């Protein structure tokens, strides 16, 4: 059913197939997420029992093609992420880590043998993956990573650490990004000769690391105030040994992880609008029932102004996400467009969630109502896959032609 917040009749822009995706995922969220999410959030519990159901809905690797992946359109994937994040940002993140990051890395950068080995089981939810890029001292500057892989005796050996890695402690495989020097790359037969003339002495490369490997340790990060119904971890890699074939052969350098990050950022641009929409709908319901001074809250001018301002901003963000999705499906999407949408929609969503909470007064700080939970989750969503500052500088470079990252 269309939302009362759809002031611009955005639903009319969707095909029958896109509406069918929306309705299926929305039904799942209504049945399985909304009745329980307050308790899960309060207990800092990731409901892994939902993973098989997510897989049955075709949410893992939804927009990837081949090797058991659903091969749906970018817009269909975006709509699904909007509905999932209307339930909770942490649960949408499970789908993003699995599909847009781990599976995408294998699909975009892996060999045919790697794709055949891993992707069908991941699409079916039988195998979980994680994506190890961020480090304790390398967040917004991933090129500053210190994790390294060397090639010795026909095997790769990885040492390093990663932080804020979703699903790592329950994952079956990790995509680990590490620096490889030219000597090791040459010995392994994977040296990108074209970069030698540029004076490059090492490059970032991706590796498929089974999490049961000796020396691999993943530890959940506790005491979080945000994304509590999800799982983020520290990873330690101490002399982790891998077969020569563990390296992802395609797209060496930072292009590899950045292509995956853009997939995740795309989903965020849609998902954040789900959290915003749910916050408004919750505020609308509450304002219609709650009475003060013998009048429903919804009957006060100031309350109506809040509801109108939030809903207009929501529709603007939804139209931005839809424009992004149509461009992605048409093959005309440019990276700066993703930055614009991720930056704008995260800002908008967190402002909406905070404002929606005020409609509830003191009652709004409990897990019984969703806006404050969405707001604190969105603090994380706004930060990961590129902070406001990083996306601002990406857009600044597009506008001026000058990089200002340092």
Give a written overview of the molecule.
The longest helix is centred in the C-terminal third of the chain and has 35 residues. It is built from twelve helices and eleven strands. The mean pLDDT is 96. 50% of the residues lie in helices and 16% in strands. It is α+β, with helices and mostly antiparallel strands. It has a four-stranded antiparallel β-sheet with strand order 4-5-9-8. A three-stranded mixed β-sheet has the order 3-6-7. The protein has a two-stranded antiparallel ribbon with strand order 1-2. It has three domains: 114 residues, Acyl-CoA dehydrogenase/oxidase, N-terminal domain (Butyryl-Coa Dehydrogenase, subunit A, domain 1); 124 residues, Beta Barrel (Butyryl-CoA Dehydrogenase, subunit A, domain 2); 145 residues, Butyryl-CoA Dehydrogenase, subunit A, domain 3 (Up-down Bundle), CATH 1.20.140.10. It is elongated, with a radius of gyration of 22 Å. Belongs to the acyl-CoA dehydrogenase family.
């Amino acid at each position: 059913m269309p939302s009362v917040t759809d002031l611009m009749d955005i639903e009319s822009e969707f095909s029958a197939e896109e509406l069918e995706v929306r309705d299926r995922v929305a039904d799942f969220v209504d049945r399985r997420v909304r009745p329980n999410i307050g308790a899960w959030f309060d207990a800092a519990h990731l409901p892994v029992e939902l993973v098989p159901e997510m897989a049955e809905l075709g949410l893992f690797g939804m927009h990837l093609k081949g090797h058991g992946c659903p091969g749906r359109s970018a817009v269909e994937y975006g709509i699904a992420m909007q509905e999932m994040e209307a339930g909770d940002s942490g649960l949408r993140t499970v789908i993003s880590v699995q599909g847009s990051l781990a599976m995408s890395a294998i699909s975009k950068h892996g060999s045919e043998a790697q794709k055949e080995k891993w992707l069908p089981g991941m699409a079916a939810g039988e195998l979980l993956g994680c994506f190890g890029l961020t480090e304790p001292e390398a967040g917004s500057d991933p090129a500053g990573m210190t994790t390294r892989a060397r090639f010795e005796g026909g095997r790769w050996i990885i040492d390093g650490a990663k932080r804020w890695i979703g699903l790592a402690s329950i994952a079956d495989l990790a995509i680990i990004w590490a620096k490889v020097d030219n000597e090791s790359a040459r010995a392994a037969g994977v040296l990108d000769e074209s970069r030698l003339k540029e004076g490059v002495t090492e490059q970032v490369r991706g590796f498929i690391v089974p999490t049961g490997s000796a020396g691999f340790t993943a530890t959940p990060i506790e005491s979080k105030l945000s994304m509590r119904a999800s799982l983020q971890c520290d990873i330690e890699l101490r002399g982790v040994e891998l077969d020569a074939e563990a390296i992802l052969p395609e797209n060496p350098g930072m292009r590899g992880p950045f292509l995956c990050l853009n997939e995740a950022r795309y989903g965020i641009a849609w998902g954040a609008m789900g959290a915003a929409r749910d916050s408004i709908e919750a505020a609308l319901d509450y304002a219609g029932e709650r009475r003060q001074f013998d009048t429903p809250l919804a009957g006060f001018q100031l309350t109506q102004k809040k509801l109108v301002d939030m809903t207009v901003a929501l529709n603007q963000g939804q139209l931005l996400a839809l424009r992004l999705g149509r461009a992605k499906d048409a093959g005309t999407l440019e990276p700066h467009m993703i930055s614009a949408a991720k930056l704008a929609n995260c800002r908008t969503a967190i402002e909406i969630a905070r404002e929606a909470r005020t409609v509830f007064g003191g009652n709004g700080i409990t897990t019984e109502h969703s806006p404050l939970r969405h707001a604190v989750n969105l603090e994380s969503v706004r930060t990961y896959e590129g902070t406001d500052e990083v996306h601002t500088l990406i857009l600044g470079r597009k506008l001026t032609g000058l990089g200002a990252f340092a």
